[in-house]
Every structure is written in C-alpha cells, then in structure tokens.
Amino acid sequence: MGNKLAASPQKEMVFKSLTQLYKDGLEQKGNTVKSIETNLREGKFIIFSDQHKGNKSWADDFNRSEPNYLAALKHYDENGFHFINLGDSEELWKFTTVEILPGNEKSILAEAAFHPERFTKTFGNHDIIWKDKFAVAFYLKKYFSPVPVVYEGVILKLNGLKKPLNIFLTHGHQGDLMSDNNSFSTWLVAHVWMPLQRFLRININSASKDFSLRNLHNKMMYEWSSQQKNLLLITGHTHSPVFASGRYFNHPSNKIDTTHENNLLIPGYFNTGCCCFDDGDITGIEITDGFIRLIKWYDEEHGSKKKVLEEIAIDKLIGDLA
After folding, report:
1. What CATH number does the domain located at 2-321 have?
2. How many CA atoms within 13 Å lie on the side-chain side of 289?
C-alpha cells in the first residue's frame, strides 16, 4: 500500500540519486557504500530484500514467509554464501522497533549467524532507522557481534572477466519523494493500511510469474542502468521480481522503448522481489558458479525447497550489455 499509494518517483531525482550514490561508492566517500572485490568463479552471494518483519499480528506481512526465509538462510550460511540484506528488513512504518525485534529473534539470529565477513546489511525506506549508527548499536547489539555497519549501497567488483564488471546494489527507494524518509507515507501505512489489513486479514503481495518491468519505478531503474557502462543494477523496493530486464524470456509486460541495437532490452537491471508474498514464497538473486539467478523458496510437503526461476551465465550477460 505504501509503495502503491505513497510513491512518487521522479525520473530526474531517481537518476541523480543513483548516480551520486554510485559515484560515492566508487570514490569511497562517506562510508555509505560498501565495496567488495570477488572472483566470478569463487564468489557466492545471496541477495534478499523486503522482509518487512512485523509484530506477528495479522498485519505482519512476513508471518507466512518466515519458515522459507529461515530454511533459505540456513542453506546459504552452511554453503558459505555472503548474504546481502538489501533493505526494508524491518517494517518500521507500521510498528516500533521494540514491537518487532522480540518476535523475530529466530530470523534475526539466522541473519546474525553469518560470519561478519559474509554479511552485509543495507537500509531501505521502511527501515531507514538503520541509517543512524547509534540506533543500530542500541537495538542490534543483542543479536550481532560485532554490530554491523549498515550501508546505503554495495558495489561488487567482479574479477576474472574479459572486461570489467561492477554490480551495484541498493534498496531502490532513492529519489522517490514519497518513499525516501517521508512522514506522510509513514502515517498512511501506520494509520490507514495497517488497520485495514488487520480488519480484512489480507496481504496484497501476490507472487508473479512475469519477472519483467511491470511498474514505473522498475522502468526508471532500468532506464538508469541501461545508460551505465559495465554495470548491473540490483534493487528491491517494488516487491516485483525482475530478471535481466526481462530480456531473455519473452515477458509480455515489457513494453518500453529501448535504444539497444536490434531493439532488445539491455539486460542490466535486476530486482530481488520480496520475502513477504501472500503464499509464503520468497524470492531473491543468487550469484554463484559464474551465473546470476532469480530464485524462490517455497513450501513443499516435507519443508522448504529452492527453485531456480531464471538464470544466465554472467559471461553471456556481459556480451549482451554492449
């Protein structure tokens, strides 16, 4: 509801914000963007966003997804993945920190189980409190040792390729006037959407089978990424998964003008989706074995199971970025 009714992305502002944040990351200014160098063949990363952990009431969108989330984190930790938590992990527009943390200790401790060198946390618009390092230290010291630095973005610098490639990761709310630390959006979610959701007992985050550029904000993110060189952009925020801009799998929703030769979409934009779909599924982006994958974890008769929804070799992807 907050993303749909309280969103007002302005293209100029979105482009300016992303460009400045990426520039700051390349120049390592202000400690707002973490830089990680990794070898394509050896690096293992899992990116999840938009858990929206709540207070365990009917208005808590994370409730049904928690078992799949816990199973996924256990799998990735045991297999040596680096977990990047890409924002809106805690739902602080609806609930207070002291309402959220005690009821979600299993999930928070599963995050904290990753070795500090294999865990990176960023903030989004719904958990922008983590932008404050004093709030991070006060609330998270019970769970994390050491207390993590919370960033606004991450740059993965991939080695072992024929040409350089960076992967820029950030929550994706930057430049959205109604989402980027806006008090009206917070009020709308807390005082209108939360009571309605409790009364109707609903979750509007429906899982999708069309991983393309369905909404305005994803299209703006695509347009920005398509103007960059040797860059992939991964965001969250929209709750709508996107894989390689929807280029490789005939997605009917991709109605967007492109400047790429042969009128093909430039496969430089990805979106994690979310960890709060109404059926309990969670989606994320995996980078491992030289591939980038859109994956989901879902309920099965004997527990949670992972499924690869779409994948592409990064070597192939690089050739199609030009």
Report:
1. 3.60.21
2. 5
Total residues found in the chain within this entry:
322
How high is the pLDDT of residue 6?
Answer: 45
Residue 94's closest CA among 121, 61, 132? Answer: 61
* Segments in the chain below pLDDT 70: 1-9, 176-212, 214, 252-263, 322
**Strands ordered across the beta sheet of 269-271:** 33-39, 153-159, 165-170, 231-235, 269-271
Q: Where are the alpha helices (DSSP H) in 176-295?
A: 183-188, 194-200, 216-226
CA-atom Rg of the chain in angstroms: 18
Cα distance between residue 240 and residue 297, in whole Å? 15
**Where do the structural domains in the chain lie, given as residue ranges?**
2-321
pLDDT tens, residue by residue, 64-88: 999 999 999 999 999 999 999 999 9
What is the distance between the alpha carbons of residues 8 and 148, in angstroms, rounded to a whole number?
31
User: Residues near 122 by Cβ (< 8 Å), separated by ≥ 6?
Assistant: 84, 85, 86, 87, 150, 151, 152, 153, 154, 169, 170, 171
Give the pLDDT of residue 224.
95
Locate tokens 């490789």: which residue? 248
CA–CA separation, 197 and 278 (whole Å): 12
Q: How far apart are CA 138 and CA 129, in angstroms?
A: 11
Distance in Å from the first CA to the final CA of the chain: 37
Instruction: Please tell me the distance from the alpha carbon of residue 152 to that of residue 35, in angstroms, as a whole number.
Output: 12
CA distance 57 to 306: 27
Structure tokens at 164: 């350089």
